[in-house]
Structures are given as structure tokens and as C-alpha cells.
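Researcher: I'm preparing a figure for a lab meeting and need a structural model of a single chain. I don't have an experimental structure, so a prediction will have to do for now. The sequence is pasted below. Please return the structure as C-alpha cells so I can convert it later.
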Amino acid sequence: MSGKPAQSKGTEDAAAFPVDDRGVAARLFAILDAFTAPPASSLTLTAIAQRTGIPLTTVHRLVGEWTSWGGLARQEDGRYALGMRLWEVGVQTPTARNLRTIALPYLEDLYEATHEHVHLAILDGRDALYLEKLSGHQAVRVISRVGGRLPLHATGVGLVLLAFAANEVIQAYLAGPLPRFLPQTVTDPEELRRRLAGIRAQGIARMSEEMTAGSSSIAAPIRDRTGQVVAAVSIVTRTTPRSSPEHEQAVRVAAHGVGRALGYRRAAG
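Model: Understood. Here is the structure written out cell by cell.
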């Protein structure tokens, strides 16, 4: 025998994690955040504890609360995934619900015209938040998902949303981290400034193999009745030697249609 007292489970947790003065609500929301940064479709209790910095015993209790409410769902392998109750609550957000409802017929038309991935996204912090996605069985593989987030500088919809954001938003974004996902991802702030200016001038964003290898995107802004850009629509296709003018026109038409449905009227002249 070593003569040293055995450590209890609580003592081990205390040693592994620093004192956490966050309230219960902050810890509960930290558990949800664990699934988004980086995105994870499912996590073990240990992984949640590691991502949140919350002791495992506390994570076990709080995850139980989320699961009982429906915010998390326990899978057959014992891992946890986000539950449908969160989606049910999220789609009730007036802006998201109204925009998705109004845009859906135009998104469906865009899909029928192209048979490519069709995205609807809004600006949320430093990310493009995806409100809708329509996909065909033969479409190129992409990592986007409804309710998911992707960086603004590396996605078609994200570039559109950033280009038409307030100047202070653009400055703050370009001053922050600009990770490179693929060799063609543009991460130089000055090059991005020029790119954003071009998007504002042309009313369209084009990008190729900057987030997902083998895929390209064409995106356009959606304006509301005040003329403000409130969302972006895009298609994602397989990369080809030349972009399709028909695809570009289809994206413009869809964006304009949603904008008109929201009350936007282009000024004469």
C-alpha cells in the first residue's frame, strides 16, 4: 500500500477541470455549443465534457435534462445527437420561418431548373447559417446542412452576405481569423476586399473548390422591401472548366423572385 488516500470520482473531476463559475443555464447552452464548434453529428459524454470543460459527472446530469426535454437524443451506440425538439423551436423563429416559407417555391423552381444543390442562408455572426437545402441524388458531395453554419469567406452564400454587410461588419470579419480549407481558399484580407467589391458590382458570387474539393458555387443576394440584403441563395455544382451562364441566370432569377415576394422593388433607371 502506498499510504496515499484513494481519490474519489469528484476529486478526479476537480483535478481534471478548473473551477467553473458558470451558471446552470450557461452550462446547458455550452453543451449545445459542443455540437457546433467544430460541427459534430454525435458525441460521447466524454467528448462533450472535453469540449465544454464541464466535469463528466455534471455533463451526465445536464445531458440527461436535455434528453428528457428532447433537445438531445441518445443513439443506439450510446452517443448523443441534437434532438428534433430544437429544430421544432428553431423553425418558429419569425425571421427564419417566414423567409423559408416565402423562399421555398423559388428554391424548388431553382432546383427543377438545375438539379443541383440549392441553398438559402442568412448572416449570423461570422457564419452563413443555412435555413434550407434542396438536393438531388446525383449532386456533388457537400458538407452544408440545414441549421448548419459555414464560414463567410469560403462559401458562395457567405461571400454574398459579407459583401453586402455593413462596413463595420466587413472590417471586423477581415480582421479576424480566415482559415484556409483548400489551396484555393482566399484568405488574404486585401484580396477578399477586392473580391467583395466585385460581388457588389456584379450582384453575383462565383467560387470554386474553396470549401469542398470538386464543387463550385454561384450565389446571389436576396433583398427585402427596404432594399437591404437579408439572405443569399446559391447552387453548388460539380466543378467544370467553364461556368454555366444558364445556371447563373437561374440563381439571379430565384434571388429576384424571393426579393419581390418580400416586397423589394428595384428602383427605375
